[in-house]
Amino acid sequence: MIPVVASAEPRPIDPLAPGRPAYVDDLVRVVRTDGELPRRTLRTVRTEHFDISHEGGRVAIAHRVPLEEVHAGLAELLSREIFGPGWLRGADVFERIMTGIVLTSADDPLSAWEHFYRTSLRTIEAATDLADSPSAGMHGAVAGYAPVYARAEEVLVGDSVVELGSCFGFFSLRQAGTREVTAIDVSAGSIRLLEQVSAQLGTPVEALTADAAHVPLPDGCADTVVALHLLEHLEPQHGWRVVTEAVRLARRRVVIAVPYEDEPEELWGHVRTLTREDLAAYGLRTGLPFAVEEHHGGWLVLDLA
């Protein structure tokens, strides 16, 4: 089963759209079902947490995800029950369904996301030492990227950080209590969400919508610039421009992390794989002192001072 995609370009996700009684956009309709399971129709696929069907040209998802599980681990759940088995495919549909699950978890969109963020940050904190977890190598699993955040924090220098490709902004939020933080992402919706939720959490993050290769900030604006699991989403030349932009923005250090994969993972929006040799080549090309390491993937650390 694959989604029916309209001929017109679907509108971008609005992360603050209403979610009750249902979250509806150009590609998906998501509802929350509590209590007894709805009757399953002939063309419905049922998993432990989801009923999957088509409705009026959209993918229709009826879910029963417990509120305590509405956090960053939704990515792993969706992969395991829907996208891994092949019932649906496509990173855009994946992101829309995940958004719909969050927005149907509370009457107010901002309250729904505040719950998602608070629960995610607690879950990430609890998972930072789960190096031996069965999910530790899975890119979308909390146990897969929590140790990445922890390692990045170990190599930060100085009192200011710019995060390129911040996505939900979990890493930036973890730093906001102790450092001056700026989060950069190409998604205007993600940045708007991060601005509003970070204020709700009491740890406001400065957030800018920009391509990580063209950031409207001055040279040397932060002690450390990080790009965590970003380059695999970009074609090689675009990725190199991000590296040079990170060097421009940093006063003291650039920290880059990538997953090591045999094939690019379509579900997470990856378009290429990177190796230790690729990271070393980037380091040599910058002309700066650098180190390449391995910890839940590959790391390139560039020192400017």
From TrEMBL:
The keyword Methyltransferase applies. GO terms for biological process: methylation. Keywords: Methyltransferase, Transferase. One of its GO terms (molecular function) is methyltransferase activity. Signal peptide: none annotated. InterPro entries: Methyltransf_11, SAM-dependent_MTases_sf. Residues 163-253 form the Methyltransferase type domain. Coiled coil: none annotated. It comes from the Bacteria. The keyword Methyltransferase applies. Gene3D superfamilies: Vaccinia Virus protein VP39. This is Class I SAM-dependent methyltransferase. It comes from Janibacter terrae.
